[in-house]
Amino acid sequence: MSPETLLPPLSTVEPAAPFSPADFDRVVMTTYSRFPITLERGAGCRVWDTEGKVYLDFVAGIATCTLGHAHPVLVEAVTTQIQKLHHVSNLYYIREQGELAQWIVDHSCGDRVFFCNSGAEANEGAIKLARKYAHDVQDIQYPVILTAKASFHGRTMATITATGQEKYQKGFDPLLPGFEYVEYNDIQALENAIGDLDEGNRRVGAILLEPLQGEGGVRPGELEYFLRVRKICDENNLLLMLDEVQVGMGRTGKLWGYENLGIEPDVFTSAKGLAGGIPIGALVCKESCNVFGPGNHASTFGGNPFACAAGLAVAHTIEKEGLLQNVQARGEQLRKQLRAIANQFPNLFTEVRGWGLINGIELSAETAITSIDVVKAAMERGLLLVPAGPKVVRFVPPLIVSAAEVDEAAGIFGEAIGAIASLP
To answer: What φ, ψ does residue 422 adopt, rounded to 5°?
Structure first.
């Protein structure tokens, strides 16, 4: 029997029985605070819920759906690949994996790529790489990795320890040793930490930073700070590792976030937007710190043909459709409109900031209004947004977003803020 005869044509498949949020909550762990809507389909920058309501999607799977929803190039790529070969494991050479690695190497400062399934896994790999480099090259017995306060690097034990936010670490003690935290964009704090931690066999071996802190409030890195960090790493034989999970693959208007800062890292990680919503992560390093050998690190699903075919489709579409230029133009347009709204409500907002199509608008500390309040008000009016902490609302639409859709989003957001501001 051929595979085609096992499934009825799509048009004759009966719709699934309704599965309510209550049904969902009975069987799924409550590790997320979910908004009370169920999304079932999308096209471009719009999604529909099970009630038929349409939303303009400025969340994009939290900066993940690079090409929006149901993009024909991505649909064709995954359809073709699933019909051919979707998984074989890394026991064998995988053409699609090699091609995607080649594209990343050709379009970045990196020389070698390791594929996994998520940003947390990519950062976990970077942490392991830094420790092995410390033992093999730097002659450090007890290496320390410096990270920034208000950072976010993932939810594994190593990456929540690397994350400089206590709220993510609470209840998971004992945390992994070998991490210390410094203020972001504060070069003196970083220099002091390196000096303070020079204690014989316990020394700083690497610095792990986000070019722009996403979950920490959409806070861009400062050019002078990162130039100095790069120099410090060179002078002290430290690895500079950048977490590009949220800002990579064109999100900032450059292909990689570090391109906004005039430096090259020794190691960087990518995930979210790399395959447009298909799970993938990548650890990228220069040859000078390529210390992994067989058995040092692995991932069963990492770099499989299906995920890498999706990644190649996204990569080539970014180039062919000139999406970086669109990101730059739409980002400037959005920030201009958000600043106009902030000026309308000076008692509510303090700042608009971001790069490309990762932008945040910060609420005043004096107002009782939270980012969740704003997100809910916008959602009621058909616009999906995402918080970046209790006081920052984040705008991360697909990179294909149009000028008209940015205008529409700003209009809805302005209406939502007007309604909130009028409440007693």
So the answer is: -85, -10
CATH number, domain at 399?
3.90.1150.10
User: Is the pTM of the predicted complex or chain greater than 0.85?
Assistant: yes
- In-domain check, residue 206: yes
Looking at the structure, tell me whether residues 209 and 306 fall in a common domain: yes
Q: Crossing angle for the helix pair 371-380 and 403-421, nearest 10 degrees?
A: 120
Per-residue pLDDT tens digits for 380-392: 999 999 999 999 9
Q: Which residues contact 77 (CB under 8 A, 6 or more apart)?
A: 309, 310, 312, 313
Q: Exposed/middle/buried for 226, CB within 10 Å: 0-12, 13-18, 19+?
A: buried
The secondary structure element, H or E, covering residue 118 is: none
3-class secondary-structure state, position 296: coil
Q: What's the one-letter identity of residue 304?
A: N
Helix or strand holding residue 336 (H, E): helix 323-344
Average pLDDT score over residue span 175-197: 96
Q: Can you name the residues that pair with 358 across neighbouring β-strands?
A: 355
Residue 22 has pLDDT above 70, yes or no: yes
State the Rg of the chain over Cα: 22
Cα–Cα distance, 81 to 307 (Å, whole number): 9
Residue 2 has pLDDT above 50, yes or no: no
Q: Which of 170, 174, 191 is nearest to 182 (CA)?
A: 191
| CA atoms of 245 and 56, how far apart (whole Å) | 24
Q: Are residues 216 and 306 in the same domain?
A: yes
User: Do 266 and 132 belong to one domain?
Assistant: yes
Neighbours of 138 (CB within 10 A): 18
Task: Give the separation between CA 148 and CA 213, rounded to whole angstroms.
Answer: 9
Among the listed residues 248, 247, 250, 218, the one whose alpha carbon sits nearest the alpha carbon of residue 329 = 250
> What is the tens place of the pLDDT at every residue in 280-313?
999 999 999 999 999 999 999 999 999 999 999 9
Banded model confidence at residue 374, pLDDT cuts 50, 70, 90: very high
Mean pLDDT of 195-215: 92
Q: Is 383 helix (H, G, I), strand (E, B) or coil?
A: strand
Alpha-carbon gap, residue 305 to 86, rounded angstroms: 5
Q: What is the mean pLDDT of residues 217-227?
A: 98
